[in-house]
Queue: 4 jobs
Job 1
Amino acid sequence: MDPALDDTGIVEAALVRRAQGGEVDAFAQLVRRYQRRAVSVAYRLLNHAEDATDVSQEAFVRAFQNLDQLADPAKFGAWLMRAVTNLALNFRRSRRTRRAASLDDTPGFTEPVAPATAALTAARPQDAGALPEELHEAITAAMEELPEKQRLALVLFSVEGLPQKQVAEILECSVELVKWNVFQARKKLKDLLAVYLS
C-alpha cells in the first residue's frame, strides 16, 4: 500500500470516486474537508478575507466541474490546492494591474515605496519592542516582497504544515526545489525583518 494512502487517504479517494460518479454529497464532504485549508492558503496569498473566500469557492466550483479529469483520486488534495494557489496568484496579478492603472490615473502620482521597505524603515531599532499589530503588518509586507514560488513554498510548507512531497505536487516541481524555495524565503524574510529580530 502507498504510505500516503493511510485510512484518511483511502476514505478521501473513495469520496472522490463517488463524486466522479455523480454523488453531490460525496463532493460536499470533500469541500468540508478542504474548505478551511483552501481559504487559509488563499488568505495568506491575498491578505483579504473576502477575496480569499471568493477564490476558494471558485476553486471548488472548478474542481467539481473538472473532477473527471483527475486521474488519481488520491491526489485530490494537491490538485485542489494547486487550483487555489493558481487562482489566488491570478487574482493578485489582476489586482496589481488594476491598482497600477488607478494610480497612473491619479494626478501627481510618483513611484511608490515598496511596502516592506516602508514598514521596515518606519520601525526604529531603538524602540522597546514591536507591537504585535506592527509586527504582523511588517511580516505581511515582507511576505509581499518574496517571489511567488518562494512565498507559495513557505506558506504551504511552513505555515500550512503540508509535507514537502505534497507541496512539490501542488507547485509541480521537485522536493529539492521546494526545500530551496523555503530556505531562500526564510533567508529573505530574516533580512527584511532584521530590525524586529535584533
Job 2
Amino acid sequence: MTTPAQADSATVRLEATIGGCELKMSVGVPAGPTRLDDLMPLLQILSDQVVGSAEQEAAQRGVCISCKKGCGACCRQLVPVSPVEARHVARLVRDLPEPRRSEIVDRFAKARRQLEAAGLWGRLNDRQDWPEEGVSEIGLEYFHQRIPCPFLEDESCSIHLDRPMTCREYLVTSPAENCGNPTPQSVEWLPLPAKVWVAAARCESAENRERYLNWVPLIQSLDWVAEHSEPEAEISGPEMVRKVIENLVGSGNTSLHS
C-alpha cells in the first residue's frame, strides 16, 4: 500500500557516463511539479562526483591539485553562478542569524559601491551583450579590483559545504602562487568532462539564445534575486532530473529510470 508521503515522491535511478566519470545513484525527488531549486542537494552531489573523478584521473597521471585552505586568490575573481545558485546564495544569507546576516549584506553592498565607482557594475548587468572575445578582459578588470568574496574568512570559504558549483569545479594544477597574478600561461586548470553549474544554467537559458548562457555574477546575487521572481514549478521531479542530466552529458551515455 502506498502512503501519501510515498505517493508524493519518486525514486530516480540514474546511470550516466560523462567522459571517464560514471555516475550511478538512486535519488528521491518530488513526483509532482518541481523547481530546479528543489534539486540543489543533487546538483551539489553531481558536481562533487564529476570533480572527484577528474581529480582521480589527474592523480593517475601524476598531476596534483594545488588548491589548499588559506589560498584565496580565486575568491577575488568574477564568479559566474547559475540562476538557481544565485537564489540559493540569497537564501543562505537570508537565513543567517544576526548580526552575521547584516555583516554579509554589508560586504555585498561595499563590493557594489566599489564596482560602481570603477564603472564595472553596469557592465556586469549588461553581460548578455559582451563580445565573446571581451569576456576574459572584463574578468581581469574585475580581478584587479581585489574584491574578496563576501563569504571569505581568513582566506578560506566560510560556506564551504554550500559553496557555488563554479567554485567546486574550479581547481588548478599549477603552483598556487601563480593564482595571485593569473594569465593563460601561468595558470593550468583541472580539465573537467562537464560542468554542473553550466548544466544548471542551461536549464534556465532561453532556447532561442544559444550563445548566451544565463548566469549571474556571484557578487550580484542578492540584487539579482531581489529583481527576479522565482520560476514556477512546471515539470515533475524525474523530468527535471532528466533535463539536468541531458544538459550535463550532451553526447555521453545516459540512462534514467523512475
Job 3
Amino acid sequence: MTAAILGCIVFCITTAASITLLGDRALLSDNLLTPRGFIAFLFHWRFILSMTCALISRFAFVFINHSLVAHPTLGPISTTVTSFITASAYVFIVFSNWYFLGERLDLQQSLGAGLIFLGIVVLIK
C-alpha cells in the first residue's frame, strides 16, 4: 500500500505541474489555430515540460494500479480504485493553479474540491 501512496503523490504532483504549465496565460495568448502559432506552441519549453510531466503521471497511474493488483481486497478492482485514488490530483491542481497562476475559487468551488478529497478518503478506508 505504501507503493500506491507514493505513486499517488507522484501522480498528483506531475499532473498538477502539467496542467499548471499549460495554464500559463502567456502561453495560451498566441493564436494556436495558425500553423506558425501551433508550431511555436509545440516547441515552447512549457509545453515540452508539461508533456513530460503528463507522461510521468501516466507511468505513475500504471505503477499505482500494479501496486494495488497484489492487494487482497483491492486487487480485483485495482483499475477502478486507481482511478478514484488519482482523482485526488484535482485537489492538487486547484491548489497549484491558485498558488502559481493566481486563480481564485469561490466558496462553492472550494467546498466541491473538499468533497472530492473526502470522497477519496472514504473510498480508500
Job 4
Amino acid sequence: MSTTQLSDIIDVTVFQDLPAVNSPELTAFYMSGIVTRNPLLDMLANSPGKTAELPFWKDLDADSAPNNSTDDPTDIATADKIVQGEQIARKIFVNKGWSTSDLATELAMGANAMSQIRSRTDTYWTRQWQRYLLSVTAGVYASNVANNAGDMVIDVASESIAGQTSATKFSRSNFTATAFTLGDAFTATGAIAVHSQVYKQMLDQDGIDFIPNSEGKMVIPTYMGKRVIVDDLMTVTAGTTDGFKYTTILFGDAAIGYGDGAPINAVAVDRKEEQGNGAGIETLWNRKTYLIHPFGFQYTGTPADGFSPTMAELATAASWTRVIQRKNVPIAYLTSN
C-alpha cells in the first residue's frame, strides 16, 4: 500500500514562497502602525551576528543658550557639535517542529494535509511573534520603573480588592495622566492596547466610539480618537493581597521596529524510518529569525543560552536601557485594576 507523506506533498521552496495565511502584518498591532517593518531592519535581521547596531543623531541641545553677538574681534565663539547615539537590537533565533506518523496518516481522514499544515503553522508563528512583542514591552516597563523613576508609567492600581475604587480603575483622567507622561509630546500616541477586562470598563463608561473599516463597517473601536487593540495577552499581575492589576499601553506610530530574517533551511522535512517501531515518522521544521526592537532603547541583557533571549528574559528590566529623552519615546503605560 502506498502512503502519501509530508515529503511527498511539501515542496520546501514552494512552501516558503506561498503567501502566509496569517502573518504579523495581519495583526492589529501591525495594522495600527505601532509596529513598523522596513528593509533596513530586514537587512539587519539577515546580517551576521547576534545583535544589530542602530545609530542615530541626537537632537541639538535646546538647553545650550545661543551666543550674544558682539563687535569685538577678540571675542571668539565656540561651536557646539552634534552627537550620535546608538541603539542595540538583539536578534531572536527560534524554531519549531511538528511530527506526523506514517501509520496515523494512513488512518487519518479530513482536510488536505498541505492546506492544514500551511494554515496552522502561520497562525502559530503569528501568535509567537505577538508574544515576543508583548514580552519586549513588558521589559521596557520594568526597565523604566527600575532605571528612570517610572517616568513612562502611571500606576493607580490597588494591591487588594478591598482597596479598589473608581480611582484605581481605567478612567479618562487616568488615561490622560498616562498620555501626559510624554509632556508636550502627548499627541504622539495613536493606539492603545488593553486587556478585555479593561475594554469592558471602557465600554461601561461609554468611552468607545467605532469607525468604519475598509469595507465601511463600524467595527474599529477607538478611545479619544486612538485605536483600541483588545488582547488578553496583555500583562495581568496578581495584587500582593488579592485581586489583579492590568497593564494598558499607549503606543505611537513606529514605536516598535520589526525585521524578518531568512534562516538557512527555514523550512525542512526530516524523515526517520526507524521510528514508530519501523512504521516511520516525518517532522516538518520551521525556523525563524526575528528582530523586534523598541524605539529609543538598547538591548543590554545576556541570554542564558548565549544566542537568543527567551520571552521571560526579554520581559526583565536588565534587558533594556533607554538612550533618548523620555518625550521622544512614543510609549506610555497605565496599571489599573
